[in-house]
Amino acid sequence: MSLSINAVARTQEGKGASRRLRNAGLVPAVIYGGDVAPQSVTFKDNEMHKAVATPGFLTGLVEVVVDGKAEQVLVKALQRHPATGAVMHMDLQRVQADKAITTRVPLSFINAAQSEGVSKQGGRLTIESKLAEVRCLPANLPEVLIVDAANGQLDQIFHLSDVTLPEGVELVSLLKGEDHDQPIGRIGKSKR
What we know:
Layout: E1 4-9, H1 15-23, E2 26-32, E3 39-44, H2 45-53, E4 62-66, E5 69-80, E6 87-94, E7 101-110, H3 116-119, E8 123-127, E9 131-136, E10 145-148, E11 157-159, E12 170-171, H4 172-175, E13 183-189
Keywords: Ribonucleoprotein, Ribosomal protein, RNA-binding, rRNA-binding
Pfam family, one: Ribosomal_TL5_C
Organism: Marinomonas hwangdonensis
């Protein structure tokens, strides 16, 4: 687990209470899921700003420590201020080690510059999808999914089936059948 953030339980709820918390430099949030009742919490604004800037915060597991008790969560929703971009509210879902989770993971294309389609045929890799939805146990959740474009040719289309999957990880779209093997990138003519 790469990120841990501290929270404080709160009892005040509603729009007015949330507005007062934000004015005091706090970010209201709700932790829900599992066998436990939902819990309203707050985070310090400056800690939340650092956490959101951390790679993997929005797509990976995060440890939240509420009054000394640690829980693993996934960020399910993040509301930002339309003008400033400051985090205004978060929804966090508890995860259980023995239950599969469904979440989105970043895609990373590697070796495209060394591919024949780019280096010899004058093509350029265009990425069409930056995230893919996966299902796995929390312990198997990858930080990133790799797509190796080393053998890419000009006019080649990369699909979800070209993703290298770690053990225990499934792509949700491919579970629905071959018709859902979406394109995620392509090597096309460079427009220079």
